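Field log, afternoon session.

UNIT: design team B
ACTIVITY: writing a sequence onto a fixed backbone
BACKBONE:
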């Protein structure tokens, strides 16, 4: 009775560093075949657990700036002194093929996407408490003291901007956060603005059939 658009949903997920979004997104991807995570580019130095082409594409600052000039990115931002950006390629074709695309990006990039694709879905993952966020930032043991403080300051600012998103998910427990995001994505598919056409015949015809059924 209704014909809906079969396009994938562009899902922007942001979270202050230390909110545990990596774990949540990995679980989400494990459980859902129709989701694709875009691999970003960055000029930051790889960490021990980074894998080129899987966690990020790593470029020097100069290479990154060259790519900006070429128009390679859908969005990009400077975060804690390093560039981060979403390569344009693949995203359009994934969405056209009905695959939901996740962009795991910070808030400046998210706001650029909001300008470009206002109908995208914007989800903010919140740490349960600031204490927990501090604990996770320090416990990660991968960044210098200065970097941890810089990241905490950015996180504090980002939390204040949560109302720019459509949904907020508190990451108190991973499975819980994952099922909330799954529910949000499901609900998004039911939005009336996905309807292309309401397929109805003439009202008279239905009434005619009704009268016959009632005989
Ligand atoms: P990290 O250095 O901890 O991997 O990432 C730092 C921040 O950069 C995180 O908030 C992450 O979401 C964000 N980020 C990762 N990729 C991109 C991207 O392509 N664009 C933007 N704007 N932010 C990104």
């Amino acid at each position: 009775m209704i014909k809906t658009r079969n396009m994938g949903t562009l899902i922007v997920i942001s979270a202050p560093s230390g909110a545990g979004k990596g774990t949540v997104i990995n679980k989400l991807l494990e459980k859902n075949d129709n989701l694709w995570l875009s691999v970003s580019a960055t000029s930051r130095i790889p960490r021990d657990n980074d894998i080129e082409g899987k966690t990020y594409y790593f470029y020097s600052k100069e290479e990154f700036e060259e790519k900006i000039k070429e128009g390679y990115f859908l969005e990009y931002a400077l975060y804690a002194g390093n560039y981060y950006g979403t390569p344009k390629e693949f995203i359009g074709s994934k969405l056209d093929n009905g695959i939901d695309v996740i962009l795991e990006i910070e808030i400046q990039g998210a706001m650029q996407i909001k300008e470009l694709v206002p109908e995208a879905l914007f989800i903010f993952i919140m740490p349960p408490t600031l204490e927990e966020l501090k604990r996770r930032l320090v416990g990660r043991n991968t960044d210098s003291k200065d970097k941890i403080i810089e990241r905490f300051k950015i996180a504090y600012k980002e939390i204040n901007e949560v109302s720019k998103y459509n949904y907020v998910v508190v990451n108190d427990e991973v499975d819980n956060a994952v099922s909330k995001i799954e529910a949000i994505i499901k609900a998004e598919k039911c939005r009336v603005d996905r309807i292309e056409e309401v397929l109805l015949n003439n009202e008279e015809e239905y009434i005619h059939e009704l009268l016959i059924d009632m005989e």
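LOG NOTE: Helices lie at 21-31, 61-70, 91-96, 107-116, 130-139, 145-159, 174-189, 203-214.
NEXT ACTIVITY: expression trials, pending approval
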